[in-house]
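Dear support,

I submitted the protein below through the web form. The confirmation email said the job was done, but the results page showed an empty box. After a refresh the structure appeared. I'm attaching both so you can tell me whether what I see now is the final result or a partial one.
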Amino acid sequence: MTEEPKKDDEMTQKIYHSSMHHANMEHEHHMHEMTGMDHDHSKMPASHDAHAGHEMNMHEMDMGGHGDHNMPMEHGGHEDHSAHVDHSGHEQMFRRKFWVSLILSLPVLLFSQGFQALLGFSMPVFPGSRWITPIFAVIIFVYGGLPFIKMAVPELRNRQPGMMTLISLAIIVAFVYSVASLFLANQMDFFWELATLIVIMLLGHWIEMRSIRQASGALNALAKLMPDSAERIDANGQTTKVVVSDLKSGDRLLVRPGSSIPADGVVEDGESAVNESMITGESKPVHKHPGEKVVGGSINGDGSLRIRVTATGDQTALAGIMRLVQQAQMSKSRTQLLADRAAGWLFYIALGTAVITAIAWTIGVGFNVTVIERVATVLVIACPHALGLAIPLVVAITTAMGANNGILVRNRLALEAAREINTVIFDKTGTLTEGRFGVVGIETLDGIKPEDALALTAAVEGDSEHTIAQGIRRSAQQKGLQLPVVQDFEAIKGRGIHAKMSGHDVYVGGPRLLEMLTITLPESLSIFDQAASAKGQSVVHLVQDGKPLASLALADVVRPESHEAIRRLHEMGVQVAILTGDSQAVAKAVAGELGIDTYFAEVLPENKDQKVIELQKQGRRVAMVGDGVNDAPALTRADVGIAIGSGTDVAVESAGIILVKSNPLDVVKVIELSRASYRKMRQNLIWAAGYNVVAIPLAAGVLAPWGILLSPAVGAILMSLSTVIVAINAQLLRTKHL
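What the results page shows now:
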């Protein structure tokens, strides 16, 4: 995210601008060309390759206040997360221009003969009063209208005439005619219409920029998560306050209670509950203890932590999330491309209609102010503001909503395609399951409570590092069990564990332990053992003084969220399949427990994509959900690849959508978000296109024989109103609960 230095006379600024051919929130470029507003360059994105078509020489377009753009990309240590654009400054600039122009337009209206005749009043006449209207109108043209003309320059230079070109043509035609009318006999000027047109256009842009700022706040919010400074611990244990940009991997940091964590790292000392909701979307604080990973930008709780930095700057999880959010907002979907093409056609339709209108009205009534009024109205009312905003606002809001819910859109096309998914394939381990052993069943004898059997087994397994032993201890810990005191641990190679408790010999092990002790399981434990083994589960037995007490079944524990995720997918009409390298018995057991339609077992990683192809050949639209490592071929092959981000690891190149949390319920959210987003895009396109179909003929005067004519000011109001409607409709997407 760095910007190569350039000479002053070559310095360009690539900024957002929502025009018809570059509708992906690219309004910033044109906004920059409006009057000299010193906006905060520290918040400008350092790289906007997608905006290359909007480069503008700042010395050609300079309007004061932009004298030096060769500024360092620094912001108190924020240079590594400056990939966001602040629209609030441009919103304020439009507001200021609108109010100033509105005040200046009052004498234009009051002293305009045409406006006086329209409302039937008159103003006092005094020497020089006839020049009030033209002088103030010219000031408005220069102050509020000339910037629109300057913004049309890059459109024409790039041979992509669009919204600003249409506005500029309307303003120029009105201005030139009005000035000429001062020196022509029997011609009424057009100054008051020109002034009101510019005022309404400024108002429309102000409202539009407000909507854009609200919609595209995701990057702003993310960038503000990272603190400016950090407390670094030196070799002597002393802390020094440094800027975040000076941190490097291996540094030790002190994170005080309530502070933001300044970089990714690992806890070395201390315990605390950390709020990671802004990163993962998980509202519940996550307890951190030594050895746990922490994410830069998350908020420390009540405890004090000492962490070892593992990643800084562009390598942090937050920076990765920001890159994905920015990439998603900048990328174009199929619907966006359609809107761009429609907006491109609209320019030529509007221009052709304006020419035909001018000819027809000149033939009908002669060349006079009416002709200018019709031409200006057509050009203004056809401006594709609404069409240009129809998709980008939805894109920005969708991306922000996704990020707030732990869903990172790496490819807009993937999110757009998710609405058509009718089959979801889940990788089993680590996706539908937790990827680690846990106790899934206990059978006991002689009235022994399952909790007591689990506690004793966990105590005996206390010193073992075997995955089954870890699973038993973890299950006991999750239940909050108090473990009995045992001693004299002894590992029996290949068979199990032996220990003593209050003088009793206690054993834990599998079938070979029973063989060694020459023990036969009672019927109830034997039935339990056979049923668990048929499901591919591992079974260990608890034996005390040569007598079996309990049998415990262990398996890769199914996530609690998996049940609801499968149920909701089925309610949405989506079929579900499991893809795993585990045995048929294990796959069948998990599929049966979750009510899953299809399972593919004993599949090697390199063959997983073949199963995706099998379903696609059946006409299914397939989404693959996996960890992005062993599942990479299948993620790439699927219609939509959804990668589990392993908590905060967002560097998954094989998927179009990344889930920050390993929560299968987020797959449901992806499909719901895709469907809701598409509905809003379609509604906005229908409105924007339908508005122009009706408005352009009306502006041309097809209803003139019935006395219905639109003035340029009314045309500008309608055009701005259509933009506001599209913006409000896009904002309603926020009401969707995921």
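Response: this is the final, complete result; the empty box was a page-load delay. Residues 1-87, 647-651 have pLDDT under 50 and may be disordered.
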